[in-house]
Amino acid sequence: MAPMLLVVAEVADGQLTKLSAEIATLAAGLAASSGGSALGLVVDGAPDTAAAELAAYLPRVVSVSSAAAADEAWAPHAAAEARRLADEGVTHVLAGVTNDGRDVAGLLCGALGWGVLANASGAAWADGQLVVEAMVLAGKAITRSTVDGPAAIVTVRSGAMDAAERGTPGAVEVREPLGAPLVPAPRVLDRVAEAGAEASLEEAKIVVVGGRGVGGPEGFALVDELASLLGGVTGASRAAVDAGWIPYARQIGQTGKVVRPALYLSLGVSGAMQHRAGMQGSQTVIAINRDPDAPVGEIADLFVIGDLFEVGPALAAEIRTRRGA
User: Most exposed among 54, 154, 227, 243, judged by the fewest C-beta atoms under 10 Å?
Assistant: First the structure.
C-alpha cells in the first residue's frame, strides 16, 4: 500500500508557522519519492488563512474550525482530528518538535499504537520503510532509525528542510470538528505573553545571541540594542539562561531552539557543541569573543577577537551612522 503522510500544522497569530511549512515540504518530497500522497491538517479557531498557506505546499489540506481548540489545550483536539484521518488511510503523521507537536505525537502513539521517531533532521525511504535521521551528542553523530511496521509518527526539528511551495496550490477541504478531544483538554484560563515573544527565533532572518560573556542580565541590553538595530531577534546560550539572565524561550542549542538565520551574530558565546547543534545551519556566522581559542571561532565566517563591550557599542554606532540615525 502506498504511504499517505499527514502534516499536523501549527498556527501562530493566525498564520502558518515556518516549521509547519518546512515539514509540509518534507512530506511532499517523501510522498513523491514513494508514489504515495501527502496532506495537511489545520485545527484552529480561525483556520482559513493558515489552511490556504499550507495548501501552497501540499495538494490537499483538511481545515477544521474548532472554537474549543482556541479555548482549550490545542493538542487533544488536533490529535482527535489526526486519528480520524488515520482511520481514513493515513500511514504516517508528521508534527513539529514543539511543545504542542510533542503532545500530539504522544497522544497519537497511545491512541494508535504507532511508534514514534523523534527529533528528525531528515527522512528518506529505504526498502519501503521510512528511515529518519536525528542528530545526537550535540551534533557529533547522526542516528538512522525506523519502526517495525507500516505506520509511524515523526516529530521534525526546525531546519530539516527549506520550505518550497508547489507550483499549483492544493485544495482545501473544510470539515466540522469532531466535537470531542482525544483526551480531556484542559481549559485555558489565561495567556501571558513574554516580553519579546512576538518575535520568533525560528522565523528570524537575523539573530543576535548573548552568552556567558555578557556578564549578567544588564549585558543583554547591548544584545537587544544590536538586535533592534539589525531588525533581528535576541537569543541566548544555555549558560546565560541557566544563570537566570534571560528566559528559556530565548535559548538556542541542543536543549533549546534550532535556528537557521541569514545572519547569526554572537557576543560572548563560547560555541560549545551543545550550542552549535542549534545554530550550525546559519548562513553567515559572526562571533565576538575575547578568547581566541573559543570553539565558536571554528565555525565563524568572521571571528572578532576583542571585548564585546568595546566592539559591540562600536558596531552599534557604525550601524546608526550608516543609517543616518
Answer: 243
